[in-house]
């Protein structure tokens, strides 16, 4: 029965563009982009590691995809895959080193990532267009917003699927054990490093793919805006507000904050990032499990 | 031990060569590096005693810079005198942030604290952005442009104040931790908070004290830096990661090592900047150091 | 010889927790490890299970050098231990805790792991294992620790003070449980403070004091060893 509802919802989502206006399609596409980022961040968080690297891998994927299309004549659709693989490889190399130390070392290394990638973007100007960035001749699907919406929806649904797989298969046992108590986990046979690296590479690939999607949609990259802190803060806030350590939480958060941020942009054109900073602080202090988490907790303890 | 010794000799030779071949890079590096060390010390203090990585550390510096600018611009207070006001103000600000935001989350998951200080850093940057806009401000004072001749090389003299300040603060901290009662209590809390509490030390007070002190020390650095740097909302950000890289490299309890590491890395950074065509890559130096520190820690673990 | 350590040493900065320990564990025996607090018993357990690596010395398991083999591989090789302060995984039910080790130490599939976990829970008489952890008694938590360790299909099982916090009746049942484990070809090391348990369970006892082995042999002999008595009671015994 549950599966029927989910299938119906999916079909509904696919049919939605025919019932709403262009602006709404744009908003929904944007929400789904951030939803995918929020979920990918949460998946890493479930292992107990805090990554600030969303914006970094997002930007990396964006650049990889644009360069692939512009300099190597790769098909735009394929370039998304290229971006994902590229991001995965970088994450593999980086993670192989840094995940041995975790926690604050891992957190601050990922925090530095977007700045570091930005340096590469600025200095390798032959490849990346330097500070001016790169512009493509045209957007993917020639800018057809409905086709773009479907593409982004497909990616978002895939990410949701992956997140659910994480919650249902043996991966859940490994990840929760690692997060809860590394020593007990490894004495029970869990290969902590392997799982951490796997999740890091996978989530970075997702972030790279999403970055490519975004770049293909707008057909340009540029160091400042592509690596903007917006792509770090908003997904984090969404996951925190909606409820971390779950699939539904980031989805709720993405819808709530996604709609709210559209409104916010109208009211407060500059400096709306401050709101997300405040959301971060307030959520951690007063609602650490987010909306979904708090509700789910109440239900569980009442049983 | 032998490995270390050889490493230090190689380093000394490299530095000597740089001094010879690129004296400007060398002296600017010493100056800049002392600044890094000076700013890293309070971060190391908070990290070591409270066990907290303050991701808003760089933003405290930015705040200090803007305060100094405000005092100079509106009240004509000389930046070198401004610490009289900015240090207490920043001490208070640090205390406020600690009490309002951090204290209640100390017992929770450490990830919470990282996210919290990250949130604080965002709020600070964006508030300053709204208030001051991104237009850079500058303070012009005549003494900031003095020039000094060392072995026939003419370099800016003012920035040696960073070096002086770094060593004074270092000495001050070391004396404080060893010789004063509060300092010894602080050190004890850093070693073993539960043990310290058992012998009657007020751990909460020490935590609040250290966090505020760190903010105050940053204010000092800000006052010195204010006349030689543009002031804009994102100016302090990079210092957080650089301070952590120094702490990671030198080791948490190794305060003198942090200042020395700062100087060495400052020289390395300036050296890279001076290579034609590679100027833009200079900011990567600290990131490479961070990765290197991680590698050494992770793979050095085999020895138990 | 199932397990053999060679001059095993572990120091933490200035403190030497385990000093040049040559321990031998014979296949099929129940070995007792006793000693005053801080003698290094848990550190020794951590070294054997791989929580950290020694500063000096070697560990051999089934004639293989496992000194630097990571903990999760040792679990798969058949070395399991319980924790003195129970560390169940809080986000799971008791049952799921056991599933974890069945999944990763045994390499079962999820379905097989659930079956194995059920059998283990029956073996240790852990009833209603689907309960959340805050509903378990101390006795049940201790049994859960053992169940988790059993999930690793161990050849060597180290029980770190499983009797702590149990009443007399519970201790007797635990003793019966440990004896039944021996019948399953599991070699067991029992770290304990309660001497009556040691005397009932063990074939042989090793005494640690300040990181070193000071006595060895059957319990009766060791209990009357003046060095051992001094270690426990101080100089004026």
Automatic annotation (TrEMBL), chain A:
It is a multi-pass membrane protein. CDD domains: TM_PBP1_LivM_like. Its main location: membrane. InterPro entries: ABC_transp_permease (IPR001851), LivM-like (IPR043428). GO terms for cellular component: plasma membrane. The chain crosses the membrane at residues 6-38, 50-68, 80-99, 104-121, 148-166, 195-216, 236-261, 273-292. Keywords: Cell membrane, Membrane, Transmembrane, Transmembrane helix. It is found in: Cell membrane. This is Branched-chain amino acid ABC transporter permease. One of its GO terms (molecular function) is branched-chain amino acid transmembrane transporter activity.
TrEMBL record, chain B:
This is Branched-chain amino acid ABC transporter permease. Coiled coil: none annotated. It is a multi-pass membrane protein. Keywords: Amino-acid transport, Cell membrane, Membrane, Transmembrane, Transmembrane helix, Transport. It is found in: Cell membrane. It holds the Pfam family BPD_transp_2. GO terms for molecular function: transmembrane transporter activity. One of its GO terms (cellular component) is plasma membrane. Belongs to the binding-protein-dependent transport system permease family. LivHM subfamily.
From TrEMBL, chain C:
InterPro entries: AAA+_ATPase, ABC_AA/LPS_Transport, ABC_transporter-like_ATP-bd, BCA_ABC_TP_C, P-loop_NTPase. Keywords: ATP-binding, Nucleotide-binding, Transport. The keyword Transmembrane helix does not apply. Pfam families: ABC_tran, BCA_ABC_TP_C. The keyword Nucleotide-binding applies. One of its GO terms (molecular function) is ATP hydrolysis activity. One of its GO terms (cellular component) is plasma membrane. It comes from the Bacteria. Residues 3-235 form the ABC transporter domain. This is ABC transporter ATP-binding protein. It comes from Pseudothermotoga hypogea.
């Amino acid at each position: 029965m549950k599966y029927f509802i989910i299938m119906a919802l999916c079909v509904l989502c696919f049919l939605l563009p025919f019932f709403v206006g262009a602006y709404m399609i744009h908003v929904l596409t944007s929400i789904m982009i951030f939803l995918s980022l929020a979920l990918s961040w949460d998946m890493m968080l479930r292992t107990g590691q805090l990554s600030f690297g969303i914006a970094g891998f997002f930007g990396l994927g964006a650049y990889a995809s644009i360069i692939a299309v512009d300099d190597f004549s790769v098909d735009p659709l394929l370039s998304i895959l290229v971006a994902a693989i590229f991001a995965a490889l970088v994450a593999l190399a980086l993670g192989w080193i840094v995940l041995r130390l975790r926690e604050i070392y891992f957190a601050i290394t990922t925090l530095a990532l977007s700045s570091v990638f930005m340096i590469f973007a600025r200095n390798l100007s032959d490849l990346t267009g330097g500070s001016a960035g790169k512009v493509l001749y045209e957007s993917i699907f020639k800018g057809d917003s409905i086709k773009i919406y479907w593409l982004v929806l497909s990616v978002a649904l895939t990410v949701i699927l992956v997140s659910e797989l994480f919650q249902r298969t043996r991966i859940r046992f490994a990840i929760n054990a690692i997060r809860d108590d590394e020593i007990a986990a490894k004495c029970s046979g869990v290969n902590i490093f392997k799982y951490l690296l796997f999740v890091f590479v996978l989530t970075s690939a997702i972030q790279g793919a999403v970055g490519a999607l975004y770049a293909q949609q707008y057909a340009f990259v540029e160091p400042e805006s592509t690596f903007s802190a917006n792509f770090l803060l908003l997904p984090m806030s969404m996951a925190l507000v909606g409820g971390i350590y779950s699939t539904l939480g980031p989805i709720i958060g993405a819808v709530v904050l996604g709609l709210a941020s559209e409104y916010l942009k109208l009211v407060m054109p500059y400096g709306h990032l401050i709101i997300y900073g405040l959301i971060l602080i307030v959520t951690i202090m007063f609602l650490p499990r987010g909306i979904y988490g708090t509700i789910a907790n109440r239900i569980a303890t009442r049983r | 031990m032998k490995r270390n010794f050889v490493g230090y000799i190689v380093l000394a030779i490299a530095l000597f060569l740089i001094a010879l071949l690129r004296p400007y890079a060398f002296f600017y590096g010493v100056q800049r590096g002392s600044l890094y060390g000076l700013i890293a010390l309070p971060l190391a203090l908070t990290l070591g005693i409270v066990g907290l990585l303050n991701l808003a550390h760089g933003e405290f510096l930015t705040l200090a810079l803007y305060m100094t600018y405000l005092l100079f611009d509106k009240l004509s207070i000389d930046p070198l005198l401004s610490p009289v006001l900015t240090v207490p103000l920043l001490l208070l600000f640090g205390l406020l942030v600690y009490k309002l935001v951090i204290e209640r989350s100390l017992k929770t998951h450490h990830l919470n604290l990282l996210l919290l200080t990250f949130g604080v850093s965002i709020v600070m940057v964006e508030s300053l952005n709204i208030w001051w806009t991104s237009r850079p401000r500058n303070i012009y004072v005549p003494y900031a442009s003095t020039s000094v001749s060392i072995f026939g090389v003419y370099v800016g003299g003012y920035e040696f104040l960073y070096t002086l300040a770094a060593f004074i603060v270092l000495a001050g901290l070391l004396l404080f931790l060893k010789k004063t009662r509060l300092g010894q209590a602080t050190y004890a809390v850093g070693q073993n908070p539960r043990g310290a509490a058992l012998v009657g030390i007020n751990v909460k007070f020490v935590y609040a004290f250290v966090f505020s002190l760190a903010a105050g020390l940053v204010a000092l650095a800000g006052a010195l830096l204010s006349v030689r740097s543009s002031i804009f909302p994102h100016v302090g950000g990079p210092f957080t990661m650089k301070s952590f890289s120094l702490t990671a490299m030198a080791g948490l309890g190794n305060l003198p090592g942090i200042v020395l590491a700062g100087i060495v890395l400052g020289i390395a950074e300036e050296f890279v900047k001076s290579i034609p065509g590679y100027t833009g890559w200079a900011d990567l130096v600290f990131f490479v150091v961070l990765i290197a520190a991680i590698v050494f820690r992770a793979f050095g673990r085999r020895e138990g | 010889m199932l397990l053999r350590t060679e001059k095993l040493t572990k120091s933490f900065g200035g403190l030497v927790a385990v000093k040049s320990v040559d321990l031998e564990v014979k296949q099929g025996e129940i070995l007792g490890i006793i000693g005053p607090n801080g003698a290094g018993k848990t550190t020794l357990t951590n070294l054997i299970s791989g929580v950290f690596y020694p500063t000096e010395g070697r560990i051999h398991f089934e004639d293989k050098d496992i000194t630097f083999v990571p903990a999760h591989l040792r679990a798969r090789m058949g070395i399991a231990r319980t924790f003195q302060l129970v560390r169940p995984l809080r986000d799971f039910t008791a049952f799921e805790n056991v599933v974890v080790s069945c999944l990763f130490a045994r390499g079962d599939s999820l379905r097989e792991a659930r079956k194995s976990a059920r059998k283990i829970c029956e073996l240790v008489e852990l009833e209603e294992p689907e309960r959340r952890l805050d509903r378990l008694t101390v006795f049940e938590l201790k049994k859960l620790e053992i169940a988790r360790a059993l999930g690793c299909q161990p050849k060597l099982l180290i029980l770190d003070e499983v009797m702590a916090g149990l009443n007399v009746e519970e201790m007797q049942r635990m003793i019966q449980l440990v004896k039944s484990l021996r019948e399953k070809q599991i070699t067991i090391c029992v770290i304990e403070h309660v001497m009556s348990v040691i005397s009932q369970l063990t074939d042989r006892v090793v005494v640690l004091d300040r990181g070193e082995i000071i006595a060895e042999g059957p319990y009766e002999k060791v209990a009357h060893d003046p060095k051992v008595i001094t270690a426990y009671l101080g100089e004026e015994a």
